[in-house]
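Bumping with the actual sequence this time:
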Amino acid sequence: MSVKFKYKLLIYLVAVLLAVPQMLHAQWFGSKSERINTLRMIVAGDWERMPVVNMEAGESIEFSFDEMSHRYHRFTYHIQHYDARWQPSDLLESDYLDGFNGETIDNWRNSFNTTFDYTHYSLTIPNNQVSLKLSGNYRMSIREDGVEVAYFKFCLSEGLNCLQATLSGNTDIDTHDSHQQLNLAVNYAGLSIRDYTKELYTVVMQNGRTDNAVLNPTPTYDAGNRLTYEHCRDLIFPAGNDFRRFEVVDMYYYYLNVDRISYHDPYYHANLSKDTRRHAYKFDYDHNGRYLIRADESNDNDIEADYLFVHFDLAADPLNNGKLYISGHFNGGNLDSRNEMEYNAGEKSYQATILLKQGAYDYQYLWVPDGHKAGRTELIEGDWYEAKNEYQILLYYRPRGSRYDRLISQLTIEN
């Protein structure tokens, strides 16, 4: 291993360690340790689903992550109910949990024939020890010796049919240009509601992002048991562009958007093709930010897919008064220093190195101006009304006198 490479590796590891307390906006999951990687939530066996479980359909959700060694660690999981605003609910553990917190994660397996040693841990809810009683938001804390090392956020829905929505590029601020407008209807007939402003709460997300989610927009019409959101400025989203993609499923063959793969003892490195700022809509067969763990000729991707350092490179002039991040479901959408791009003046490009497991990945570049939390697409990806996007709507209900927010309905639409 060259001295130069050792230095770069040291810089990377230091950056990972420093990233832990510097999260700009925590999303669906996050790691608080450089040892914990590839956090995943899979609902009903479908890797493309958002972490929203339909209680009435009897669905389950699998949680998994890798610890970067072959040493066994006694991890425990602790589940807490949260309200619609992701604040802890005023509930006792026995109100929402059938079983007890603090159970150990007993399903673990060591990686096989990989350059990076890791142990794959997984658990499914419900299981023989724990099940959940109530709908709503939940946060699962993964702990070792009482210290949180990772977390997952997920939802349980009652599956009521209360939501209808349409999507259009013809918005109240432009026509077939750079935005998309969501029109929404909420039908709450059958619910005992006196004041919807206090009892209903709506969340709208674009591609599962929470940094730019719209929280409880104001309806434009109230017609009895039906709320209508038409010409609602709050529900106009910058359209962005289709996600960029790359595939690293083989260490010896270069697949989609990979310029080269090299081996620097003891690890592999993948250099992606140099990206550029987009000046037009770029159609692609993306998965709206998702990723799939996969290795060619593997019988078990969970423990046979290897890790490698993936090098991102974006040709661009330096941008001022903000930071540039790589975003996708693979990092939970967390806009933190672990996923921040650094400018290389000599090469006139933004660069980042991220340790990832073999697979197929969607990603995009988000610019966060100083003093803001929401990422913006217009500077690098551009905003084009034709872009394929997915919108998730969550409807919460807190009846008068209740101590928690029920998640009664969920809808996903795409253009």
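The tokens above came from a reply further down the thread. The radius of gyration is 22 Å.
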